[in-house]
Write a structure and sequence with these properties.
Number of domains: 4
Strand content: 35-45%
CATH class of the largest domain: Alpha Beta
Distance between the termini: 103 Å
CATH topology of the largest domain: Rossmann fold
Largest sheet: 6 strands, mixed
Number of strands: 29
Length: about 450
């Protein structure tokens, strides 16, 4: 028995140690920064204390030293304009990898500007430089003294890079003369002009610091008196550069809740009020909670049916709401349903038979706009044995408006219609001459039945 207990104890220890060895370690989040360095011929030009390339090399060597000890930041280097005097080539000189600081510094020291400017090509190839990973934030940093982009290709390439989902943000540091950056480069990423050597390193470090932080936003919907609104609405955060949605959340009325966002991205916000409320080019500072109070003036709209007793079922009608004078549908709701809309004027169509059109309906802040429609009546049609075809029209001031067709296969029909004056045109199916057409005029009263014998 003692021997058996000893064996069982030994097996327990072995299995426990094996399970501990097999347990995967959590993969830490990593920030990967791809440096794309301009080595075109113009980098030999004098800037501040030395040539642009020499100043850049000094700044970059100190910078690589400072980030080498940070395990959560990985750096790689792609260069363009250095391969051949007559070529516009680009190459990944130092790929991402652990302990590659020495390789980065060695390559930076030996760079020789030689060729033309191929920033768009370098940016296109950059997507293949990042290892496949779900736990990394990928950033591109372009350092250049001016981009020749007369055809706008850098903007198109940058958009495709952002749409790929591989890269969170592209930054551009511009060194040299301000006149070399007369063309707007914000389309390609977040552009920063560096006016002197002293601010060169500061701009570089600020981007890396920003890449490692999160931002928080507390959203609130308020009325015109700065009071929180009841209810909640969905909110979409779009990347301003690409127009692609980054986050979808809800803004809760009267509830102060924080939402985490990436401070590297500039956002366009859409609050799905009716109609939508939008904010453009919103940035959130890293490391703090930004309060975003959005002013919304809205009221309530309800279309209800007059309460009268009837002996037949009344169909539930849908309601279509449009901004006044516009054809685009804003929202739909049901008769009897209450829905919130921004203060304004709307056109409302109640899809009963025939439809009821209400023009210029005003919704006011903190008010309930309550509109009523009459209870419909019931039309019963008794038909002869012959198959009849026909159509019903509503008559308003002598003008006919089509309502519906009869069902030729039904011996008797029951139609729920809104009150009004109507006209029915019928003829036998096998008689197609105009003389065989018969006309019946009838009236529908609210909550009453009208019988029509053909």
């Amino acid at each position: 028995m003692k021997r058996l207990l000893a064996i069982l104890l030994l097996l327990t220890v072995v299995f426990s140690a094996s399970a501990q060895r097999k347990k995967p370690k959590p993969v830490p989040d990593k920030t990967r920064v791809l440096l794309i360095l301009d080595c075109s011929n113009s980098m030999w030009d004098q800037w501040q204390s030395d040539s642009k390339i020499k100043v850049t090399q000094q700044v970059m060597l100190h910078f690589i030293d400072s980030v080498a000890a940070q395990n959560d930041i990985d750096v790689a280097l792609r260069v363009f304009g250095h391969l051949n005097k007559d070529a516009y080539g680009t190459r990944l000189e130092v790929p991402f990898g652990e302990d590659n600081s020495y390789k980065l510094q060695s390559k930076i020291k030996t760079l020789v500007p030689n060729g033309g400017c191929t920033a768009a090509t370098a940016l296109t190839d950059a997507l293949h430089d990042f290892p496949v990973s779900k736990n990394s934030r990928n950033i591109i940093l372009i350092i250049t003294d001016g981009i020749d982009d007369s055809d706008g290709s850098i903007c198109n390439v940058a958009r495709q890079v952002q749409l790929s989902g591989i890269v969170v943000q592209t930054f551009i540091l511009g060194i040299g003369n301000p006149s070399d950056f007369d063309r707007e480069l914000d389309c390609a990423g977040k552009f920063t002009y560096v006016p002197n050597e002293e601010q060169y390193a500061d701009a570089l470090y600020s981007i890396f610091k920003l890449s490692d932080e999160k931002a928080f936003v507390m959203m609130e919907l308020e009325d015109s008196e700065d009071q929180p609104l009841d209810g909640d609405v969905p909110v979409a955060f779009y990347d301003s550069q690409t127009g692609v949605v980054k986050y979808l959340t809800r803004c809760m009325g009267g509830v102060q809740d924080t939402f985490e966002v990436d401070p590297l991205v500039t956002y366009d916000l859409t609050f799905f009020t009716q109609p939508v409320t939008t904010l453009h080019h919103v940035e959130f500072a890293p490391g703090v909670v930004s309060r975003l109070a959005v002013g919304v003036s809205q009221g309530q709209l309800r279309i209800r049916q007059e309460q009268q007793r009837v002996t037949w079922p009344v169909p539930k009608a849908s309601v279509v709401v449009r901004p006044s004078g516009e054809s685009q549908i804003l929202a739909t709701q049901q008769v009897g349903e209450t829905k919130s809309y921004l203060s304004g004027v709307y056109d409302v169509d109640v899809l009963c038979v025939p439809p009821i059109k209400l023009k210029g309906v005003e919704v006011r802040e903190k008010s309930n706009t309550d509109l009523s429609i009459p209870m419909p009546g019931l039309l019963t049609i008794s038909k002869p044995k012959q198959i009849l075809i026909g159509s019903i029209f509503v008559v308003e001031e002598g003008v006919l408006t089509y309502v519906c067709d009869l069902n030729p296969n039904a011996v008797n029909e029951r139609l729920v219609l809104q009150p009004g004056e109507y006209q029915l045109e019928v003829q036998q199916q096998n008689k197609m001459d105009s003389k065989s057409v018969k006309t019946y005029k009838f009236k529908i009263d609210a909550a009453k039945q009208t019988d029509l014998v053909l």
